[in-house]
Amino acid sequence: MAFASKRGRLVRMAISRNKGLVALVAIGLVLLAAVIAFFHVLWERQNSDAFSVREDALWATYQTDREAGKLVLALHDLLDRRDGGSLADVSRRFDILYSRHEVMEEANFPGKFRSDARLKELSEQLSDRLHAMLPLFDRFVAEKRAEAVDLERAIADALALRATTEALLIATNQTQLALQVEDRDVTAHIYAWLAGTVVALMLAVGAVI
User: Fold this and answer.
1) Cα(139)–Cα(61) distance, integer angstroms
2) Is pLDDT at 52 greater than 90 in this prediction?
3) Which of 27, 115, 120, 130 is most buried, by the most CB atoms less than 10 A from its CB?
4) pLDDT value at residue 48
5) In this model, does residue 205 exceed pLDDT 70?
6) What is the residue-wise DSSP string for 134-190?
């Protein structure tokens, strides 16, 4: 017990005589922990799935807009009785468009872009327009024919839908670019903090030596 007590006093004396050194060692350990934490954050950001998920969402928006354009062309071909125009092709185009939209809805499309209000508004507008068109196209399938007046109405609805998909595609691309710039700025700030921390750690280690 006496030996342990004596050793404790010696340790306390050594610490009291080298408070500056002890403080530098403590600061160095804190800075080392900070460097490790910064590297961990950078690793997580680099391996994050957020960017690829947003790219997939952007691609889904592009596909939906393209299918809306194909539906408009198919309706015009049928109305003008062009070669290749048929009610079956119109129905197929609408089914593909509807399936593309369902994929977007199931994937919570606006949420992939941090619940952007503009994207949410356009997504809801697209959904409303598409569901409003559903009864007319269901009637085309059930009756296996389409009157000219119904085709003209379908074309007007499809053109309005295409305007929405185009606006959604533009807004999605703009949001994606803005988020990329924001991500790069955040990453640049993390690298700046990391560089400053490494320099401070080197100075602390040099002072200890």
Assistant:
1) 27
2) no
3) 130
4) 60
5) yes
6) HHHHHHHHHHT---HHHHHHHHHHHHHHHHHHHHHHHHHHHHHHHHHHHHHHHHHHH
